[in-house]
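Record format v2
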Amino acid sequence: MKVIAVDIDNVLNNFSDTLAKSSFTFKDSYGLSLEEFDNYLDLVKHDVFAESEFLTTKFSDFRHRIHEQCYPLAQANPDGVQFLNWLKANGWKIVICTKRNLRLTGECTKKWLQDNHIPYDYLITALNKIVFCKLWDVPYLIDDDLLNITYGERYGIQIYYPLMAKHSSVVSQTAKGFTRFEEIKQWIQE
Amino acid sequence: MDTRVELLNEFYQTMCKDKVKIENKNYGFEFIKKLTADNATLDYVQMENNLIHKYRLLHVSENHKQRLLQGHVNQAYNVCLYFDETANNTLCFNIDNNYKRNNNELIPEIELAVDYLQQHLGEHGIEAVNVKSGRGYHVWCRFAKPIANQLLLDFMIRISAKTLASLHYSHHDYRSIKINMSPNPRFVKIISLRAFGSRHIKTGLFSHIRTNDGVLNEEDSWKYFSNYMKNKTVSEQQFLLAFNEVAKTISLVK
């Protein structure tokens, strides 16, 4: 079976840009003071966690609610959409592999994929995508995560990543950066 | 049919008929084929820590669901059920350890919270069944008739508030635990709860029932669960009475 895993945020869409550029208005339902709202929003926009010894906090709830507003707003990368349709047409099984908590965001994620005509066979939450790919025998992963780009090779997973500023320090011998999804076609057919 | 499966069917009679979540350590595309027998569809998979995999299945046929429940009582995997979207004959307080560190530990605040919760329910003539669940407890109440989800939630919020206040006034940090309440109309489509009789994937422990006299073994837990359903199911009238009483003392800001 030809199978490939593809991340969503910052791979198939522009999530981080959307988060940075969107404005969010204060709501009483956040259960925060205006000062807390401004402080937390700044942390969320910079992808920083408020320190806490607890799992569920006012911040974690707020972060989820801001991300939830961004998921439908993020724009699909037309090049990526085209590539996934090419994969489907050529007999590949597509695993959408995301860190999103699908229990909470499954519906809006599916709607976004459908609205943007993105085909897939399986939708999976995996916090550790390398472990997922290794376990499930998925040889290819398209992902922007530095950790995966760095360690994919060690576990026999071929990583392809969209070139971004944060990747300037990448030292992997086998992970391949791309500017257009089109480039991946030749690599997976080698 | 296995009497334990019959019991689960009766206890959770208003739960969604065609939607379940399966949790176990099995994985892979071949395993998905088995899960999606009888035209069931896989909605999504969650791969969590310790290689625990959760599979949300839709369009599950009655026969397939019964087979899955049999697998559940045989402890081959756990079946998690979804509440009905409008009204239910059960409610559940899901009490968990809220610390990031040693999150699987059953901390004293959890045991205390279960005691307080029981006490506050008991003040209104409602008895709950307390089921151990990993790092915490599922505290279930069962009603003779389905009750609107919003009413159940409004009741649970008040009882939970009293429980957290009791923890606070006994000099414990109420933030050390979290209480999730089901059914919650906001999350009813997406939140599932493990049916009784499960073996926790992470800890390997059976979902023992805890009574005032202590924690029961597996066999006695099943007996207690059965007795609870037969003798402690709460009438609709009793619930409404309890709701009105608790609503008089605690008002919700919406």
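Residues 3-82 of chain B form a domain with the Alpha-Beta Plaits fold (CATH 3.30.70).
The mean pLDDT of chain B is 95.
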